[in-house]
Amino acid sequence: MNARTDTADIVVIGGGILGICTAYYLLQHSDLKVVVCEKDLLAQAATGLCVGGIRQQFSHPANIRLSQETLQILEELRDDWGAAFDFHKIGYLFLTKSPTTWENFLENVQIQHRWGVPVEVLSPQEIHHRWPYLRTDDLLGGTFCADDGYVDPYEVAMAFSRAARKQGAVFLEKTEVLDIELKSDRVHAVITTQGRLATPVVINAAGAWAAQVACMSGLNLPIKPYRRQVYATTAFDAIPRPIPLVIDQDSLFYFREDGPGILMGKTDAAEPSSFDTHTDRGFLETLIETASYRAPRLSDAEILRGWGGLYAITPDENPIIGTLSDHQGLYGAVGFSGHGFQHGPAVGRALSRVVLNSKVDLDLSAFRYDRFDCLKEIGEKITV
Ligand SMILES: Cc1cc2nc3c(=O)[nH]c(=O)nc-3n(C[C@H](O)[C@H](O)[C@H](O)COP(=O)(O)OP(=O)(O)OC[C@H]3O[C@@H](n4cnc5c(N)ncnc54)[C@H](O)[C@@H]3O)c2cc1C
Q: DSSP labels for 189-208?
């Protein structure tokens, strides 16, 4: 570790969207020395591998607010930075044939309307009329928000990292944090593969590795890694554009347009927790079968490539944001399941205010670290 980087006011562990955005916003409000340690390269883990979706269709108001804030932030920054990232406003369409899920959809829509989300409730006939390539005869209905969509997650992360660097953030790539030193319940330093870095504040933004990083300070965070596989097809024009991000909530299958091709994936609810990110032939066969059922034309699509990434999942599928324990100087933004990319900018801004002791406009109480005794009240129901 050279003299320039052997001390820091704040060390962020993890150079994904959460770590990068938090560093950016910390430096908007201060001239502190902020160092981000990343064991690999920036945004190569979940952030760079994700599908880039941004939706306002959540069941929990706090998650709706985070998506709305991110959309606003991206719009402002696109103008300020002249950044290239485009928001593809294709909409998100949720479908179900299950009476219980349908009831949940209708309850969620009431909450979403209360928060100003322009979501529509659609009958199977209306769905068939708008998207005739979808099988609808078995459905009870769907919900559609035309303002949802996607961006290129890597472009967004890189734009934030460039802006953070300009403000003085130091990004140490290929630098793994191996330990966190505490003295009298206060953060004292981090030990990295490049040396020791003295600091009074550590922010855990380590994604799927968040529990391992928490362990370094003796904390037991209930966050587990789960593989999610995604497949892209070659150019495919048998389905007319725009193709919304369609989520079949019963099979947890989804697809959307992806340039000239299609991107599709599925949650395997039976898959055990692991750090495995390989693609799997058996999974692909099930995916194609599910895709061909819900959108029969997809059976003609040709798979180009696939990849796996990791979700970081808490028991209630909501993240942990803010202080992580009674130890002084330990903070985190971890456990984002399948919605951390879209919440990264808004959470980065809110967390920077928590760390700097400034006023936070968002209600983060649903995301406190010590909530796991009263899970039923506050969990997120719409997960994919
Ligand atoms: C296939 C897939 C599709 C998804 N689709 C969407 C979507 O459409 N919309 C959405 O909002 N979200 C989506 N997500 C979820 C989203 O990708 C994540 O929630 C989000 O990227 C998490 O960001 P992060 O910064 O917390 O984690 P990451 O991007 O994983 O970054 C954490 C970083 O910490 C580093 N790290 C870990 N331990 C250490 C250590 N000890 N020292 C130094 N560095 C360390 C890792 O190398 C990694 O780079 C998807 C995820 C996957 C896998």
A: EEEETTEEEE-S-EEE--GG
Architecture label for domain 3-49+154-223+316-378: 3-Layer(bba) Sandwich (3.50)
Q: How far is CA 339 from CA 32, 44, 71, 222, 334, in A?
A: 29, 17, 13, 17, 11
- Within the chain, all domains assigned CATH 3.50.50.60 are found at 3-49+154-223+316-378
Q: What is the pLDDT of residue 60?
A: 95
β-partners of residue 254 are 247, 265
pTM, to two decimals: 0.96
Residue located nearest, by CA, to atom 22 of ligand 1: 340
Start-end of CATH 3.30.9.10 domains in the chain: 88-148+224-313
Dist. CA 26–CA 355, nearest whole Å: 8
Q: What is the pLDDT of residues 129-178, one digit of tens each?
A: 999 999 999 999 999 999 999 999 999 999 999 999 999 999 999 999 99
CATH of the domain spanning 88-148+224-313: 3.30.9.10
- Cα 98 to ligand 1 centre (Å): 31
Q: CB within 6 Å of ligand 1 — which residues? A: 13-19, 37-40, 44-47, 49-53, 176-177, 205-209, 213, 228, 230, 309-311, 336, 338-342
State the distance from the centre of ligand 1 to the C-alpha of 248, rounded, in angstroms: 24
Choose the residue to mutate in 41, 47, 90, 384 for probing ligand 1, maximizing ligand atoms within 8 Å of C-beta.
Answer: 47
